[in-house]
Specification:
Helix content: 40-55%
Order of helices and strands: HEE
Structural class: mainly alpha
Radius of gyration: 29 Å
Strand content: under 5%
Number of strands: 2
Oligomer: single chain
């Protein structure tokens, strides 16, 4: 008796593996770029929040002492008005206080 054996499909073909790898690559690229955008937005928001905090502390310092803070005296806001003075290692960077008594972060 001459019976033919039919080939059963066991395993994956090379094309199926390549397609699966391509899909995973595309998905990982999309996720990577989404996360990068989120990180960029969060650092900008951190900077904005810190600048607002410093400006509020400057106003509070003036309200109590009737003396405006300058760039050189920013450290006098610590510890009563701020936990740390703005510096190069903070989100806003080592900013300056302008003539309108407003703090401008160097990294914002």
């Amino acid at each position: 008796m001459n019976r033919r054996r039919t080939a059963t499909h066991q395993g994956f073909t090379l094309i199926e593996i390549i397609v699966a790898i391509a899909i995973v690559g595309i998905l990982s690229t999309v996720v990577t770029f989404s996360i990068r955008g989120l990180l960029s937005n969060s650092s900008t928001k951190n900077c904005t929040v810190e600048v607002h905090k410093v400006n509020t502390a400057i106003q509070a310092y003036y309200s109590e002492n009737k003396v405006w803070i300058t760039t050189q005296t920013l450290s006098s806001l610590v510890p009563d008005y701020l936990t740390t003075a703005p510096s190069a290692s903070t989100p806003s960077g080592a900013g300056t206080v302008d003539a309108a008594h407003t703090y401008k972060g160097s990294k914002c």
